[in-house]
Amino acid sequence: MIQRADTYVTDTAGRHRGRFAPSPTGPLHLGSLVAAFGSWLMARRAGGEWWVRIEDLDPPREVAGAADAQLRTLSAFGLVSDAPVVRQSDRHALYDAALARLLDAGFAFACHCSRSDLVAAGGIHRSCRPGALRETPAIRLRVPDDTRIAFDDALHGRIEQDVAREVGDVVLRRADGYWAYQLAVVVDDADQGITDVVRGADLLDSTPRQILLQRALGLPTPRYAHLPLIVDGSGRKLSKSLAALPIDADDPLPTLRLAWCALHQNPRVLHGIESVDRLLARAITDFQPEQIGSAATTVAALHNCAATQPA
Ligand code: GLU
């Protein structure tokens, strides 16, 4: 498990280039809009840039037309990339080059183990099963014993993970030939000069392995802020509940108010605003990053918050 320490660090000083990186596996839902709006607000507040990148490297999970629908929804919400939108499916050469460097340096290896070989170890790979042979092996990053990675998340404070024990050797290219998200995201964040990764807290436990990969590739580590999750009444993540309904691009204002509440901002400041542009302008002015914190909210609490009337 990820451990949470007591330190609380916020550091958005200096140059800021943030991003929103949806996977086109379906329409945007409230949780994804919170990540988009939160990362956009952090960038705007810092006077920085906000880029959109489509993470379409997993065709079996993708839905035809979803990327374009996501981009249309974002623009209906007034959230438009400051740079041309890139798609990971156009960037295989970059991932190939990074993988080649890791293999050449001896940091990565071909792994012939099957999923069932790893069941006894809870899916955590530490060494290859002797004699296993696959036609197309996966490629993994070798994670030496006692590889502890710590970082200061702007919202969650100090986070530490023993990557060897809790994650094991990290898959970089899957046995089915597709790139692993972990490699592509690290390569792209560095290639695009992203300084601030602001995304949902469901990715908090991926961050230590991404930092490990950055170090292996000699890439800079951006600042991280993992936004609070939205949970349903029984504490399940929004994406696993009925509340993960697509958001309505034809009626952005109510959803923007919910997302504002999910970021633990004061709902009263957006009261009575009836245009997206004016709402966003007001949101930039009144945004208080130090209010976000790390506490998850329920869908019911969000609806109550968004219905708050001025005092
Ligand atoms: N593509 C990932 C997702 O949609 C997000 C990746 C990231 O923000 O690092 O969950």
Structure, described:
This protein is of the alpha/beta class and 311 residues long. The protein contains nine helices and 13 strands. Strand 3, helix 2 and strand 4 form a beta-alpha-beta unit. Helix 1 packs across helix 7. The termini are far apart. 38% of the residues are buried. The N terminus is likely disordered. Bound molecules: glutamic acid (GLU).
Give a brief outline of the structure.
This protein is of the alpha/beta class and 311 residues long. It has helices at 30-45, 66-76, 92-104, 163-166, 181-191, 207-217, 252-262, 276-286, 299-306; strands spanning 3-4, 17-20, 49-54, 86-87, 108-111, 138-141, 148-153, 157-162, 170-173, 196-200, 223-227, 230-231, 297-298. A 3-stranded antiparallel β-sheet has the order 1-8-7.
SSE layout and pairing:
Layout: E1 3-4, E2 17-20, H1 30-45, E3 49-54, H2 66-76, E4 86-87, H3 92-104, E5 108-111, E6 138-141, E7 148-153, E8 157-162, H4 163-166, E9 170-173, H5 181-191, E10 196-200, H6 207-217, E11 223-227, E12 230-231, H7 252-262, H8 276-286, E13 297-298, H9 299-306
Parallel strand pairs: 2-3, 3-4, 10-11, 12-13
Antiparallel strand pairs: 1-8, 5-6, 6-9, 7-8
Helix pairs in contact: 1-7, 3-5, 5-6, 7-9
The chain binds glutamic acid (GLU).
